[in-house]
Amino acid sequence: MRTRVLLSDLEVIVNPPRNRYSIIYILLFVAIIAMVIYNFNQTATTKEALTITEVAADIQSGKVTRIVEDDNHLTVIYSDGTERTSNKEPTATLVEQLKALGVTTDQLKPSNVKIEVKAPSALLGIATVAGYILPFLILAGVFWFVFRQAQGSNNAALSFGKSRARMFTGDQPTVTFEDVAGVEEAKEELKEVVEFLREPEKFISLGARIPKGVLLVGPPGTGKTLLAKAVSGEAGVPFFSISGSEFVEMFVGVGASRVRDLFDQAKRHSPCIVFVDEIDAVGRQRGAGLGGSHDEREQTLNQMLVEMDGFDTDTSVIIMAATNRPDILDPALLRPGRFDRRVVLDRPDMKGREAILKVHIKGKPLSPDADLSILAKSTPGFVGADLENLVNEGAILAARRNKKVIGQSELEEAIERVIAGPERRSRLISPEEKRIVAYHEAGHAIVAHVLPNCDPVHKVTIVARGMAGGYTIALPQEDRTLMSRSKFMDELAFTLGGRAAEEIVFDDITSGASNDLERVTRMARAMVTRLGMSGELGPMVYGQKEELIFLGREISEQRDYSEAVAEQIDQEVRKLVNDAYDKARKVLRDYREKLDAVASRLLEVETLSREDFEAIFPPPNPKKNGTPVPVSSM
Description:
This protein is an alpha/beta fold and 634 residues long.
């Protein structure tokens, strides 16, 4: 367990120290308990004590053999060995009080009664004084504590402009480069930063200047923050972490003050790393705010620009920042001298996904039959956060099934849980609807299996997950970054295969293909307006996107073309969709027997794996990878 302690207006992550106030609380509690016990004993003793008159009567009757006097407290010892207590008046001696009560001098002779007087203890006076002073000390302590709390509140108000950065010391690194996988190129770029922090003289002696700022750019979940922590762990230097939103407050000037304080702290702890997460919260392009140049966010950005450019070449402070929206950052923030280097963290490829899975599976009991390479092949488009969630879901499923190890089946089911959500086997549907869903999914699978540019079918199921009544998974044989027009056309036909199967088998259509139609329309419009894949309109881009700077969202598209061109775009989109739909219907009519066989099998077992599907319908055509090949020259 770790505790956050404020030290010089800086939140430092350290081991939990002993609370200095706990000792005061314990002492006060012990003192109160001791006083209560002492008063209780005094009360009990007072009830059992003899009066001085009773003591005098016992002396006269010859029962008392010895009296021990300790200040005003008397211990009376009888002839039978019993002891009783009593008290005398402090204004007179014991002998005077006994004689006044009728005890003769002969009865007080040493042969009859031995009277011992103890010397007064030095602690008695101290205890007496403490009895008077202690209540005042306790009261003074209570007032001091109250005033101290009030003073702390005032200091908190005065330190409103202090930086809230959290500093992690580099003595015991928790994250290193070994904990980061799938971004080998990014790690190579950042190893120079680590080497500079370890040996800055090596660079300075040659007149070299390490990049003052490193901007990590990539989609969410690719490991930008984790990579920044790994740099700190490898270099073994203090690591300041702060979010971009923590700079901006409703009060004017607070953000700029926090920026100044952050950079002052960084200079005092040099060499170190300052990491600003989600810098787009404060680094958006200036001039777009409602307040113009007096906008608080822009003042904060201006102060950050000044501080970043004010570092000397021998100052071992490196600024690292992360964002997934580099397009909206201010150009002055990205220029050389501030963020000199931009490190892109893209979605990992198949090899990178396998390495990430090995990192997250470390320390977990894995079954020997688990194959991480198959999982990496089955998760195209997954980022590091998705893969971590996948492994965790697999472990939860294994625990739910009372297994001691995580098997391949749990990990494969975890992929589907991450993509579509948990199974909904309790969902009740009529046999007619179940038959429609079976033919719908079988239509997708048949079209994908026949067309050469579609990915191989991996799984077909009519078990509902999330909002989907059923689904067909087709996974690529290898990662690809380019897609040909023929690949797009086959994908359009594959997406429309479910609707085509409904029309062929039932001579009617349902609302089950609503999501398919949205995807097809969006894909076809992108082919025409963004990718230049229309034969009539040619290789041009139509329309310019407009984004809302504050929200970072696309709100509209500027039409830079005429109404006649818009009509042509609609015609081309409709033609692409209709051609794909005709292709899907032709495939399903040609392989109607296979369509019925797959649908019937789905109604029996609900889920078909790739092996089960190919046992029913062997591959009719060899698959292509979707990448164009050179044509033979004439």
